[in-house]
Design goal:
heterodimer; A: alpha/beta; Rossmann fold; 4-stranded antiparallel beta sheet; 10 helices; 12 strands; B: alpha/beta; 2 domains; 9-stranded mixed beta sheet; 9 helices; about 35% strand
Chain lengths: ~250, ~450
C-alpha cells in the first residue's frame, strides 16, 4: 500500500544555510505522528517545505504524497491534494473577511478537484456549524481574517479551516504556542475530532504538554535536520523529564 | 528683465489657438462671457500647455502627452444619442436621476428631468451662458490662479454642461448622476463646464461618470464648480472610465462653507492620460471634508491626482486618503498640498497615500506638501509604496487559493479600504464591482 506521505533523505536550506539534512519520515493514513525537538532542529522548516513556502530550497531527497511528487506542486495544488499546514503564527489579512477567505479557499479546492462549488447558503451553514463547534462566534467570521484576534482565536481559526477543508494530511506547527490551557483543550478537541482512518497527522511541538491532549501513535525526535530517534507515545514523556540536551550534544 | 523664453509652440498649442479663433463666435454667451473667455485664452496662450518644469504639472507633461488638439465635438445627432443608452451602467439599477451629457452637450431628451424635488433646479450650462449669466467666473474667488492652464482652457472653450441648484434646507434623497459619455464617431474634444450650488443646510449626492470607446482617440476637459453652503452635506463621486486612448483633464473647484460635511471620492480606472485636479477651499469654520481617491491602472496608463486643500477658517477637519494599484508600465501620480492660513487655528488635517505596485515597470510618484501658517494645528501626512506581501500570498495559497486569485484577494482588500468608506450602499457595491471587474481583466 502506498504511504500517505513518504519523505526520503530530505535536504533543505534557507538563504544558503542547511536546515534539513537527510530527513526520512513515513506517515500512513490513520496515524498521528509527533515530531519533537529542540529549537533550531528544523521543525518549522519541515512544515514549510511540505506546504511549499517560497524561500526554502530543497537541495536533495524527495517527498511523495500518495505516491506523487509533492515538491513539484505549487502551494495551492498541494492544498487541493489534501495537505494542510496549521501555521504557528497565522497571518493577519486586513480587508479580507474571514467568510470571504473561507469561501475562496473551499471553492478553489473544489474546482481544482473537479467538484461543484458550494452554494452560498450551504457554505454559510457549514462554516457556522464548524465555527460553533470551536467556540467561534458568527461576528468573528465577518471580521478581517485574524486581524485583532487573540492567539487562541487565531489557533481556533486555523483548526476551523482544517475542519472545513477536510485535508488528508494535517501538519500542525507548534499549535500549542501562545495558548492557555482552556484554549489548548478546545483546539485539541477540534483536532481529535478530525482523527480518522483516512487521515494522517504530523504534530510538531517543542513541549510534551500538547501530546497529553492530542495523543500520538508515534513520536520522533528531530535534531540538526534529521530524525534521530523514533518511539511510541512514552518517548514524549521521557523527553519531558530528560530534555533535549543529549540530542543537541549528539548533533554538535 | 526679459520675458521668459518659451519653446516654439507645439502642434497641439497651435491647434488650440486655431480652434479658439474659429469657434469663439459660436460658443455660448454674450459679450461679457466672450470677454471672460478671451482673457482666459490669453492666460493660456502666454504660458502654453503645462510641462514638467511647471511645478504643479511636474509629473504630467501635457505638452508631451497631448500630441494634437482635437476639434470641438459636434452636437450629438440622433445616431450618437442612440448609442448612449448603456452609459453610466455602473449605477443603472440604483434609480439615480440621470443627467446625460453626450459629446460635450447636455441632452435634455435623454435626461431624467421629471418630478424634480422641491428646491432642485437643473439647467443646461449652454442655455445659462446664452442668457449671459456670469457663471464662468462666478464663485472662483481666490481658489485658483487665473493662469491655471486646464481651467483657463476650459473657460475659453466650454460649450455646455449642467447648472444645478439646491435651495437652502432642501434634502435631495435621490442621487444625481451626471453621465458624461463620448459616442466616438470622430476624434474630438469635449469641453464641459458644470456648476452645482448647494444651499445652506441642504443635502445632496452627486455622481459623475466619464466614459467613451476604447478605439477612439479623444480629449476631455471638464470642470465642476461646486459650492457647498453652511451646514450643507454633500457627497460627490467622480468615476473616470474613459476609453483606452483618451486624454482626460478634470478640475474640481469646491468652495465649502461652515459646519458642512463634504465627502469626495475619485475612482479612476480608464483613459490613457488622466489628470484629476482638485482645488478645495474650506472657507468656513467647523467643517469636515473627507477627500478620497482610488486609481486602478494598467497597460501604459498615466493618472495624476493633484489635490490642493486650503484651510481658510478655524476649527475644520480634513482627511485626504489616496490609494493606487499600478500594474504593467502604468504610472500613478499623487500631489497633495494642504495649506493652513494664519486664521485657521485648530485645523486638523491628515493626508495618507498608499500605492501598491504590481509590476517591476510600474511607477508611482508622490509629492505631499504641508504649508502651515497657523501655530495651533494638527497636520500630518504619510506615504507608502509597496508590492504584494509574499507571506500573505503564501498563506492564501496554502489554503488552496491559486496565485492569481490570491493576488486578486489582496488587491481587493487594499482597494477595499477606500471603497468600504462609502456610506451609500449602492455606490459602494457598484465601485466594488468595478474593482472586481478591473481585477478580472488582469487575467
Amino acid at each position: 500500500m502506498t504511504a500517505l506521505l513518504e519523505i526520503r533523505n530530505l535536504q533543505a536550506e534557507i538563504a544558503g544555510r542547511k536546515i534539513l539534512d537527510g530527513l526520512d519520515l513515513t506517515v500512513n493514513a490513520g496515524e498521528v505522528h509527533a515530531i519533537m525537538g529542540p529549537n533550531g532542529a528544523g521543525k518549522s522548516t519541515l512544515s514549510y517545505v511540505l506546504a511549499g513556502k517560497p524561500g526554502y530550497e530543497v537541495t536533495g531527497g524527495e517527498v511523495l504524497f500518495k505516491g506523487e511528487d509533492l515538491l513539484a506542486m505549487p502551494p495551492d495544488e498541494r492544498a487541493a491534494k489534501g495537505v494542510f499546514l496549521a501555521f504557528q503564527y497565522p497571518l493577519e489579512i486586513p480587508g479580507v473577511a474571514t467568510m470571504t477567505f473561507l469561501r475562496a479557499a473551499l471553492n478553489a479546492q473544489r474546482r481544482k478537484r473537479g467538484e461543484e462549488e458550494l452554494s452560498s447558503p450551504d457554505l454559510v451553514k457549514r462554516v457556522r456549524e464548524t465555527a460553533k463547534n470551536l467556540g467561534i462566534d458568527a461576528e468573528m467570521l465577518r471580521r478581517p481574517l485574524n486581524v485583532g484576534f487573540s492567539g487562541g482565536e487565531k489557533k481556533r481559526n486555523e483548526t476551523m479551516q482544517m475542519a472545513l477543508l477536510e485535508p488528508l494530511l494535517c501538519v500542525l506547527d507548534e499549535t500549542d504556542s501562545g495558548l492557555d490551557i482552556d484554549a489548548l483543550k478546545i483546539v485539541a478537541n477540534g483536532v481529535n475530532q478530525l482523527r480518522s482512518k483516512e487521515r494522517g497527522m504530523i504534530v510538531i511541538t517543542h513541549y510534551q504538554r500538547l501530546l497529553d491532549y492530542i495523543v500520538p501513535d508515534i513520536v520522533h525526535v528531530l535534531s540538526a535536520g534529521r530524525i534521530v530517534r523514533t518511539g511510541g507515545k512514552e518517548l514524549a514523556l521521557e523527553l519531558e523529564s530528560t530534555g533535549y540536551a543529549q540530542y543537541q550534544s549528539e548533533a554538535a | 528683465m526679459g520675458a521668459a523664453i518659451r519653446p516654439a509652440r507645439t502642434i497641439a498649442e497651435l491647434g488650440l489657438a486655431d480652434i479658439y479663433a474659429t469657434s469663439r463666435q459660436s460658443l455660448p454667451g454674450g459679450t461679457d462671457i466672450a470677454a471672460v473667455r478671451a482673457a482666459a485664452f490669453n492666460h493660456f496662450a502666454l504660458a502654453g500647455l503645462p510641462h514638467s518644469r511647471v511645478e504643479a504639472w511636474k509629473y504630467t507633461d501635457l505638452r508631451r502627452l497631448m500630441r494634437d488638439a482635437k476639434p470641438l465635438a459636434a452636437p450629438p445627432d440622433i445616431k450618437a444619442k442612440a448609442r448612449v443608452h448603456d452609459a453610466g451602467a455602473l449605477f443603472a439599477t440604483l434609480g439615480f436621476r440621470r443627467l446625460v451629457i453626450v459629446n460635450g452637450a447636455f441632452a435634455a431628451d435623454l435626461s431624467d428631468l421629471a418630478g424634480l424635488e422641491t428646491g432642485l433646479t437643473i439647467r443646461s450650462m449652454a442655455e445659462a451662458l446664452a442668457l449671459d449669466e456670469p457663471l464662468l467666473s462666478q464663485g472662483l474667488g481666490p481658489m485658483v490662479p487665473a493662469d491655471e492652464p486646464a481651467l483657463a482652457l476650459n473657460t475659453a472653450l466650454a460649450g455646455d454642461g449642467v447648472v444645478i441648484t439646491v435651495l437652502p434646507g432642501a434634502t435631495i434623497e435621490r442621487p444625481i448622476h451626471l453621465v458624461f459619455v463620448n459616442t466616438g464617431a470622430a476624434a474630438a474634444a469635449m469641453v464641459t463646464r458644470s456648476l452645482v450650488v448647494v444651499g445652506g443646510g441642504a443635502r445632496a449626492t452627486f455622481v459623475e461618470t466619464h466614459e467613451g470607446p476604447d478605439h477612439q482617440d479623444y480629449q476631455v476637459n471638464t470642470v465642476l464648480q461646486l459650492v457647498v453652503g453652511d451646514a450643507a452635506e454633500v457627497d460627490h463621486f467622480k468615476i473616470t472610465r474613459e476609453g483606452g486612448a483618451a486624454v482626460h483633464v478634470a478640475t474640481l473647484l469646491a468652495n465649502i462653507g461652515a459646519r458642512a460635511k463634504f465627502n469626495e471620492l475619485g475612482f479612476t480606472a480608464g483613459g490613457a492620460v488622466v489628470r484629476n485636479q482638485l482645488f478645495v477651499l474650506i472657507a468656513g469654520k467647523g467643517t469636515e471634508a473627507n477627500l478620497r481617491g482610488l486609481s486602478l491602472l494598467a497597460g501604459r496608463q498615466h493618472a495624476d491626482t493633484t489635490l490642493a486643500v486650503d484651510h481658510a477658517a478655524a476649527g475644520s477637519q480634513s482627511r485626504e486618503t489616496f490609494k493606487a494599484v499600478v500594474d504593467d508600465e502604468a504610472r500613478s501620480v499623487f500631489q497633495g498640498k494642504i495649506s493652513v492660513r494664519p486664521q485657521a487655528q485648530q485645523t486638523d488635517a491628515k493626508m495618507t497615500t498608499r500605492v501598491l505596485l504590481l509590476s517591476d515597470n510600474a511607477e508611482a510618484d508622490g509629492k505631499p506638501e504641508l504649508e502651515i501658517f497657523a501655530d495651533d494645528v494638527q497636520c500630518g501626512h504619510g506615504a507608502t509604496t509597496g508590492t504584494l506581501d509574499d507571506q500573505l500570498k503564501f498563506y492564501l495559497m496554502a489554503r488552496g487559493i491559486p496565485e492569481k486569485e490570491a493576488e486578486a484577494l489582496l488587491i481587493q482588500a487594499f482597494a477595499g479600504e477606500v471603497v468600504e468608506t462609502i456610506g451609500h450602499e449602492g455606490i459602494r457595491d457598484a465601485l466594488m464591482d468595478a474593482t472586481l471587474g478591473w481585477l478580472g481583466q488582469r487575467g
